[in-house]
Design a protein that fits this description.
- The chain is mostly beta strands.
- It has strands spanning 3-7, 10-12, 18-25, 34-39, 45-51, 58-60, 68-73, 78-83, 92-99, 105-108, 112-116.
- The termini are far apart.
- The model has no long low-confidence stretch (mean pLDDT 97).
Length: 118
């Protein structure tokens, strides 16, 4: 049974940092690219980051470049998102997802809420 489970969200002040984790199980994690995607209130899904299966290449959406860092530990079947210099606009439900052909995602987690507010 394929599962991805996000954790690490919470309330943080602007300028603060947070580290999200995504625990994967039920598949060979090291064979797949993974994504971070978010959905802010009143907005659609926004792709945040993608990371190759071995973690050697990482890609980011323009809104988070220079502030967020995605990484993975394949030995622990875990994906990470280090978020620094957080802004109120980063407030969203953050998902990790497994990438398949054509860049689509087939399995999503339940999401973890990040709220950036004073």
């Amino acid at each position: 049974q394929v599962q991805v489970v996000e954790s690490g969200g919470g309330l943080v002040q602007p300028g603060g940092s947070l580290r999200l984790s995504c625990a994967a199980s039920g598949f060979v994690f090291s064979n797949y690219w993974m994504y971070w995607v978010r959905q802010a209130p009143g907005k659609g899904l926004e792709w945040v980051s993608g990371i190759t299966a071995g973690g050697g290449s990482v890609y980011y959406g323009d809104s988070v470049k220079g502030r967020f860092t995605a990484s993975r530990d394949n030995a622990r079947n875990t994906l990470y998102l280090q978020m620094n210099s957080l802004k109120p606009d980063d407030t969203a439900l953050y998902y990790c997802a497994r990438r398949i052909a054509q860049g689509a995602a087939d399995y999503w987690g339940q999401g973890t809420q990040v709220t950036v507010s004073s």
